[in-house]
Description:
Blueprint: H1 16-31, H2 38-47, H3 52-140, H4 147-179, H5 183-190
Helix pairs in contact: 2-3, 3-4, 3-5
Amino acid sequence: xxxxxxxxxxxxxxxxxxxxxTATRLMQKDAAPDTLTPDDLRRIGEELDIPARYVDQxxxxxxxxxxxxxxxxxxxxxxxxxxxxRLKQGAWAGVALxxxxxxxxxxxRNGLTTTLAEVAQKRSQVRNVVExxxxxxxxxxxLTPGLNRDAEVAGADNRVAVEQRRYDERAAAYNxxxxxxxxxxxxxxxxxxxxxxxxSEVSSW
Length: 205
């Protein structure tokens, strides 16, 4: 007997039975309905000698289980939505807080800058009266000591003391504000001086 040469796609005799069995299973699967009605289940139960009441009880149990699963799924979805809502609220709250802090920081920084300008003005006034006192001393040193000379020196010293006290008041106010919380954070972030020297700490005006 002459065997024919097998070309591409040819099937060996040994594989025929397996192919037919596979095709039969696929056909049965396509022919089977996707769902069964309660009557279908009762007929199947009758064929298996299962009373209809047990089939009905099984259907009721299945319905209850599916309802419970649906409720659980709804509860999980509700919790998930609540978590997402809380996260969104937290994000908006964070943005709002950041905005409030930014505005507050700007207000605090402006206040500190204003106080710094006042301190600089007071320091300039101290420098002016100190320079005038030095000029006065240079002129009075050439005069004969007397009541008028002493009065002028005392007046110059008094003006210096008054301006130094005014300077110290503004410098102390700045230092107290810069050291307080949360102003101290604004000072660090803004690059402002953490403290200012008082007149007793100033060697040269």
